[in-house]
Amino acid sequence: MITTIYKCDICGLEQDDNKQFWTVGVTASYQGYSSMSFVENKYLEVCRPCLESLGIYVQKKKDDSLPNPPTIEELIREIIARCSDD
User: Fold this and answer.
1) 6 DSSP β-pair partners
2) Which 3 state secondary structure label does DSSP give 49?
């Protein structure tokens, strides 16, 4: 029997299925062409809490004191920095 364990690249959370895991990465395309492939080695597999911490999938909450989500530039820089640590 083979068991697959999914591990978050940010916090290290492990679980036995890929529910609530997302791939976040850097991609580039020119006008008129859309690519769904990521730049090589510039992507992360992340759990839902870490995805939300990046400000990519933020749930609406009643608490108005939530910080502003990061800019796209800040997110790209963070993804590249985390991938460069390998």
Assistant:
1) 15
2) helix
